[in-house]
Amino acid sequence: MLAYLIWGAGYGFAAAVQPGPFQAYLVALAARSGWRRALPAALAPLVSDGPIIVLVLLALSRLPPWWLQVLRFAGGAYVLYLARGAWRAWRDFASVRPDPASSRRAGVLRAALVNLLNPAPYLYWGLVTGPLLVEGWRQSPARALALLAGFYGVMLSVLVALILLCAGAGKLGGGTSRVLLLLSALALAVFGLWQIGLGIFS
To answer: How many CB atoms sit inside 10 A of residue 123's CB?
Structure first.
């Protein structure tokens, strides 16, 4: 069960610090409206990910068991692709500049809509965390719950930290943002190679 908790925590960290529309929305909202108004928006994945997870799990539950190995390999390749993107963002770093227009759209529902319309959660749950969740559930429901606890516990904590760093500053501190990108790239590379290894040899 500890392994699933660690996997969830690692993937949750990587998901939270990946540059994307949702993270940019949080940065803009925090810079424009302050942390008190932006903090509830960090909970948006709890609203938007539910339908995504259900949809993905319904699809995965109808696949034969060997398909999980194929998806694990594909998911590892996708995670390496994300690692490459994070590495390039770190290498060619430019501080995030919030969009004042988007910062006016506060609230959990608006943030959830941003996340729901973003393809990243579908790819993440379909190729990476979804197969792990199904495998963990088949072994023991406690393992699946540990994966979810690690994922959302770490992801929401990082999103809250991101908002607090951005609030009142107008932009994220360049050094902090760049360090997070580098950590994300390294974590994604390790998890991607590990998942590909499991897909090949397990």
So the answer is: 17
